[in-house]
Structure formats: structure tokens, C-alpha cells
Design a protein that fits this description.
Layout (H helix, E strand, L loop, with lengths): L3 E3 L1 H15 L3 H20 L16 E4 L6 E6 L5 E8 L4 H4 L2
Parallel strand pairs: 1-4
Antiparallel strand pairs: 2-3, 3-4
């Protein structure tokens, strides 16, 4: 059993990210996808590592940049069990428009 789970929106986000990058380079898309999974595994161990962004949402979620691809943000709920990954988005997107 996984210690984190993706919402349907996060699953779609990951697919869209992978597909967009894979149009140019499948190996690069695979590296970004693996970094996202590694970041999620890290957040399970350190759920309070992310930042709260009250300027973006009043929901009790945190934001974590994917390393070494900090333009991608994982938006997650640190209080859920398993840890819930709500969205995975590129930082250039309007974050307010993608949050519930």
C-alpha cells in the first residue's frame, strides 16, 4: 500500500506533464516523473516540509517544489493518511485557478 495517493486531478496533471515533455524527449519526461514520485515519498516522511500559502488559498494544503525541477509544484494535504497529492502544476500556471 502506498503512503501517498494522487487525486484524479493530480493523476491527470502528471499525465499532462509527462506527455508535454515526452513530445520532445521521453527520457526527460521519465526523469521528471521519477523526481515527482521521489518528492512525494520525501513528503510522506516530512509532511510539514512544504510551505503554506495563505495568499493563494485558505485550504489546509502545502506547496513543495520538485527537485531538481523547481518549476513543478506539488500541492498536498499533510494531514491526510495516506498523504494526499492534490495537484502537480507548473509554477507559471495560475495556482488559484487550479485549487478547489
Amino acid at each position: 500500500m502506498s503512503l501517498y495517493r494522487f487525486t484524479p486531478q493530480a493523476v491527470d496533471d502528471l499525465f499532462q506533464i509527462w506527455s508535454y515533455i515526452a513530445d520532445d524527449r521521453v527520457d526527460a519526461a521519465n526523469r521528471v516523473e521519477e523526481a515527482i514520485y521521489e518528492a512525494c515519498a520525501f513528503l510522506v516522511k516530512s509532511p510539514l516540509a512544504g510551505r503554506i500559502r495563505k495568499d493563494l488559498t485558505s485550504h489546509p494544503v502545502r506547496f513543495w517544489p520538485v527537485q531538481p525541477y523547481p518549476n513543478y509544484l506539488i500541492i498536498y494535504s499533510p494531514d491526510s493518511t495516506p498523504l494526499e497529492v492534490i495537484r502537480i502544476i507548473h509554477g507559471a500556471r495560475s495556482i488559484r485557478s487550479v485549487l478547489p
